[in-house]
Amino acid sequence: MTPIRQYLDLLSVQLRSMRDEIWFVVVLHVALSLGLVLGMGYLIPDISEDAAMYLVTGSATQSFVTVGLVMLPQLLAQSRAEGRMEYFLTLPISREAYILSLVTVVAVMALPGVAFSLAFGAWYYGFALTFEPAFLLVMVLSVLSLAGVGVAMAVYIPHQQATNAATQLIIFYVLFFSPVIFPASQLPDVLQHTAHAAPPTYAADAVRATITDVPGTSLNKDLSVMGGFAVATIALSAFAIRRRG
Fold it and tell me: Which is nearest to 116 in space by CA: 40, 54, 201, 31?
């Protein structure tokens, strides 16, 4: 069986096994996006158009972050604790195909939240979005880079409780201490430097570069860094679970 056929079969299995969770997560993401766009807007009276664009694109990126760096590692950690990961590792399948099937599932979960954030946010704050074709590549690399890091966390952190705690810290950091929903210039110097090592920084910047005219974006750099994160983390994770199997 070819790796592509393995991937498609694994994807079918994952989608069917998680069909109830997918709808719940979609509704949750829409609600979170609504709360973030409206709630943060209430905290910033007379919000400027550039600030509104940062908030809306950051909210869309937050959907990728939530599924890639929170839900996916928690799901894998639980799967490992319950023995379901070990079951899949006993099968004659490609480890990369197994990981990519999980990443695809979380991408499906994230997309409705991304679409809602952008559409509702642009309407609510009254600005236009200009979609470039590169936005499709940005979405793919955003999912792969963030989910790749999430998989690596679940594989390399030995205990489920530690994985869950780490994911909660990550979402807190991304919301308030990284340049996702506001510019890096508003952060202290030390956080501006640490942001260079965080994939959400590049995902948010790439989203802004392809659908808004906010100045200061670096699309080529964003794509390169996200691609590097995706390849490195997925390869490391596949190597680790290959050793487990």
Answer: 31
Contact 164, 74 (CB under 8 A): yes
- pLDDT one-digit tens code per residue, 77-104: 888 888 877 787 788 888 778 888 888 8
Provide the residue type at 91 as one letter.
Answer: L
Predicted pLDDT at 34: 84
Q: Is the separation of the CB atoms in 239 and 98 below 8 Å?
A: no
Alpha-carbon radius of gyration of the chain: 18
Q: What is the rounded CA–CA span in Å between residue 178 and residue 175?
A: 7
As a 3-state breakdown, the chain gives helix, strand, coil percent values, each rounded to 5, of: 85, 0, 15
Host H or E run for residue 205: helix 199-211
The Cα 154–Cα 183 span in angstroms is 30
The 3-class secondary structure across 6-43, one letter per residue, is HHHHHHHHHHHHCHHHHHHHHHHHHHHHHHHHHHHHHH
Would you state the torsion angle of the CA atoms of residues 227, 172, 66, 236, taken in this order, to the nearest 10 degrees?
A: 40
Exposure on the CB side of residue 66, measured as CA atoms within 13 A: 23
Q: Do residues 155 and 230 lie in contact, with contact meaning Cβ atoms separated by under 8 Å? A: no
Q: Over pLDDT 90: what percentage of the chain?
A: 13
Phi-psi region of 215 (alpha: psi -120 to 50; beta: other; left: phi over 0): beta
Question: Could you give the maximum distance between any two Cα atoms of the chain, in Å?
Answer: 59
Position 220 scores a pLDDT of: 92
